[in-house]
């Protein structure tokens, strides 16, 4: 009886210790986020008079309006979505096609092709920046959103091919053979059988690809020049220059820039984490 | 090389490749299937392979982007030897690799060990650590810029706990700028590494721990002799992710300091970008990119070798 109760006590103490430690860590991690959220809701005079770290003495949504309208965040967010959504869809479609062909059919050089495609994605982007910006000039699409869409697709697709290949390869061959016996062609097999079975992986990669492409800065500032074309990441740097030391507006801009990916994360949290692991541990 | 040997035993081969593979009746690949491969391949060839080849060629030229590139052989690389900024950037890149890479691996593993057990509330803690991963590095940078301001939160805290003498213009001081930039990058990376390790820890057979306990192994011994060896393949993945990510790091430095003050937080990636697109020295910029490529080459190869084994 007493032995039981001491064990129980020890277990309770360990649990309390865990929550204390983990809670502290989580608080530390969330603190910068809370700080930005609070700052984005304070007025400029309040921040100027009381400092960034003080408790808020004001409440306003005006910063968001200022960042959204005057700071050009609205247009930038639209640009970001116009680039990100087609990029995710096209990249995954192309990657699924290639992965299907490479994993379900015997073809010459298929392993070489797979690694070539993956290898392209592992290259440091720096080696591509200058030629890509020149290439888009030659193609007459420099400083247009299609250039950004093109390079994001071309650079990203190899990685998704590799991950989806690993996933599709695991689908038993009997399913495919049964379909072949029934007279199904490659398209039917792809569309009716393999793709539906790949849905979990596609969801996971979709969530991942959305944040990666949405958060990109380097490709955007390589193929775009006009402020009106820039996606939200580059616009945020512009905002930083436009509203020097107006932390309330910059904070509001940061919140706007982060909101879409946070929404995707919260909505697809499980897919998201699964995606990271698919990509890495596979 | 260690990377290669550790992964060999990672997964039992799913289908043992038989010698007769592909030698059966010669069947032509359906044209549609060929197109399925060729279209994505062409997209990648246009935007990646062809530009990459050009990039290597441009590294051997002097080019302002207007007049045609002039071939200079290894002139750009010779220039690097005497380029002070290049030396700073190279040293900073190595520092970045060691500090950002090393700390994110160690702290990510520590966080995963702390939060590995399924228990009440653990989902919240994991989500809290992971949340910054979804922020863009630019947004992350701006958040921390506010913290680092002379009248920002960090200095206020230091003042508050009686360490006012440590107050600092963190990003404007050559001695602290690089480290001040690493912290936000770590804040964002640790959650990512934690997720990778959490999956790895989940894959460890619990009976191994039971057996170790039976043999009287303490906590540390179980970690040292069960957990670490079992995590070898994850370690290999984390290592490649970290090296590739470190060499790519650009956004956070660019948004916080642009490599300054006086190049004190310059990385090869930021130096390459400003050389190419601000000084318009495209040949020299390409040569800097080649240096980055060479640094990443070993890791890329080991990653591909691992992929090659798995693709079998």
UniProtKB/TrEMBL annotation, chain A:
<dbReference type="Pfam" id="PF00528">
    <property type="entry name" value="BPD_transp_1"/>
</dbReference>
<dbReference type="GO" id="GO:0055085">
    <property type="term" value="P:transmembrane transport"/>
</dbReference>
<protein>
    <submittedName>
        <fullName>ABC transporter permease</fullName>
    </submittedName>
</protein>
<feature type="domain" description="ABC transmembrane type-1">
    <location>
        <begin position="77"/>
        <end position="268"/>
    </location>
</feature>
<feature type="transmembrane region" description="Helical">
    <location>
        <begin position="113"/>
        <end position="133"/>
    </location>
</feature>
<keyword id="KW-0472">Membrane</keyword>
<feature type="transmembrane region" description="Helical">
    <location>
        <begin position="244"/>
        <end position="266"/>
    </location>
</feature>
<dbReference type="InterPro" id="IPR035906">
    <property type="entry name" value="MetI-like_sf"/>
</dbReference>
<dbReference type="GO" id="GO:0005886">
    <property type="term" value="C:plasma membrane"/>
</dbReference>
<keyword id="KW-0812">Transmembrane</keyword>
<dbReference type="InterPro" id="IPR000515">
    <property type="entry name" value="MetI-like"/>
</dbReference>
<feature type="transmembrane region" description="Helical">
    <location>
        <begin position="201"/>
        <end position="224"/>
    </location>
</feature>
<feature type="transmembrane region" description="Helical">
    <location>
        <begin position="77"/>
        <end position="101"/>
    </location>
</feature>
<feature type="transmembrane region" description="Helical">
    <location>
        <begin position="145"/>
        <end position="167"/>
    </location>
</feature>
<comment type="similarity">
    <text>Belongs to the binding-protein-dependent transport system permease family.</text>
</comment>
<keyword id="KW-1133">Transmembrane helix</keyword>
<keyword id="KW-1003">Cell membrane</keyword>
<feature type="transmembrane region" description="Helical">
    <location>
        <begin position="20"/>
        <end position="41"/>
    </location>
</feature>
<keyword id="KW-0813">Transport</keyword>
């Amino acid at each position: 009886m007493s032995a039981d109760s001491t064990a129980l006590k020890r277990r309770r103490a360990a649990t309390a210790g865990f929550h204390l430690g983990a809670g502290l860590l989580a608080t530390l991690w969330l603190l910068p986020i809370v700080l930005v959220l609070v700052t984005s809701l304070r007025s400029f005079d309040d921040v100027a008079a009381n400092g960034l770290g003080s408790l808020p003495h004001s409440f306003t949504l005006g910063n968001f309006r200022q960042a959204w309208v005057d700071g050009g965040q609205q247009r930038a967010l639209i640009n970001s979505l116009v680039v990100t959504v087609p990029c995710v869809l096209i990249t995954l479609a192309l990657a699924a096609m290639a992965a299907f062909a490479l994993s379900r059919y015997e073809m010459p050089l298929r392993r070489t092709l797979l690694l070539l495609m993956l290898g392209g994605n592992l290259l440091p982007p720096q080696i591509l920046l200058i030629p890509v910006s020149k290439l888009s000039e030659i193609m007459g699409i420099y400083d247009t959103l299609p250039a950004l869409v093109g390079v994001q697709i071309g650079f990203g697709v190899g990685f998704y091919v590799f991950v989806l290949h690993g996933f599709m390869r695991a689908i038993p061959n009997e399913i495919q053979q049964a379909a072949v016996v029934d007279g199904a062609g490659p398209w039917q097999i792809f569309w009716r059988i393999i793709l539906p079975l790949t849905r979990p992986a596609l969801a996971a990669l979709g969530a991942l690809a959305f944040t990666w492409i949405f958060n990109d800065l380097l490709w955007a500032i390589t193929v775009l020049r006009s402020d009106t074309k820039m996606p939200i990441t580059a616009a945020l740097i512009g905002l930083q220059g436009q509203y020097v030391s107006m932390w309330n507006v910059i904070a509001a801009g940061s919140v706007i820039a982060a909101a879409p990916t946070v929404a995707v994360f919260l909505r697809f949290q499980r897919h998201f984490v699964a995606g990271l692991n698919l990509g890495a541990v596979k | 090389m260690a990377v290669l040997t550790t992964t060999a035993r990672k997964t039992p081969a799913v289908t043992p490749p038989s010698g007769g593979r592909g030698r059966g009746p010669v069947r032509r690949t359906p044209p549609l299937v060929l197109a399925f491969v060729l279209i994505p391949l062409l997209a990648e060839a246009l935007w990646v392979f062809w530009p990459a080849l050009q990039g290597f060629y441009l590294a051997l030229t002097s080019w302002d982007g207007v007049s045609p590139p002039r071939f200079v052989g290894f002139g750009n690389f010779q220039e690097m030897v005497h380029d002070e900024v290049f030396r700073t950037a190279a040293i900073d890149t190595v520092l970045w690799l060691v500090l950002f890479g090393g700390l994110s691996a160690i702290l990510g593993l520590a966080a995963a060990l702390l939060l590995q057990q399924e228990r009440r509330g653990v989902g919240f803690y994991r989500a809290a650590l992971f949340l910054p991963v979804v922020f863009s590095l630019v947004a992350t940078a701006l958040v921390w810029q506010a913290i680092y301001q002379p009248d920002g939160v960090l200095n206020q805290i230091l003042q508050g706990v009686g360490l006012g003498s440590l107050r600092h213009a963190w990003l404007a001081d050559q001695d602290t700028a690089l480290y001040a930039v690493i912290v936000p990058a770590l804040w964002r990376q640790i959650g990512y590494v934690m997720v990778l390790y959490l999956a790895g820890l989940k894959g460890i057979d619990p009976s191994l721990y039971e057996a170790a306990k039976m043999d009287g192994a303490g906590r540390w011994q179980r970690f040292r002799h069960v957990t670490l060896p079992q995590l070898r393949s994850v370690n290999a993945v984390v290592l490649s992710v970290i090296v590739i990510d470190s060499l790519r790091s650009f956004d956070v430095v660019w948004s916080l300091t642009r490599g300054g003050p006086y190049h004190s937080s310059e990385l090869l990636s930021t130096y390459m970008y400003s050389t190419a697109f601000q000084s318009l020295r495209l040949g020299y910029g390409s040569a800097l990119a080649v240096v980055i490529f060479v640094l990443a080459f070993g890791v890329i190869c080991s990653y591909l070798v691992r992929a090659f084994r798995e693709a079998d």
